[in-house]
Sequence to fold (153 residues):
Amino acid sequence: MAAYTEARQVIKDITTYAKKVKDSEMLSKIIDLQSNIIDMHEENQELKDQIRDVRDQLAKVSENLIDRERLAKFHDMFVDEDKLKYIETSPKPYTDALLEHMYCPRCLQKDEKLISMGKNDDYGNEVYGLICPVCGFSTWFGNNPNLGSVSTF
Fold:
């Protein structure tokens, strides 16, 4: 902004000089120059706004990037790797806090989104069901994680 202010002052000084020496051609060129500088200032401001918008978009994108290296497979779902052991040994039914770390594989693979699974049905001590609140992917498995699971789409 300081460069623009300084350029305006120089143009004013030259305009004053051109009026004193009564040089109409120089005065015309100065007016053209002043118009060009104003246009450049407006374009510069637009570019600054675009840069700010792109930076904001990049910040949002980087917030949503998924670090697949921190995910582990648990039955048909993905879970935070650091929570895997706890999930495997945790009693069922799972708490909502624990479900926040269990992610729908369909949403992850299709849309690159980490969508936490929700409770579907509790079939008693032997079987436990989960469902994705976004796409409807569901899975169920037994109390013993080694019993396996069945998924439905």
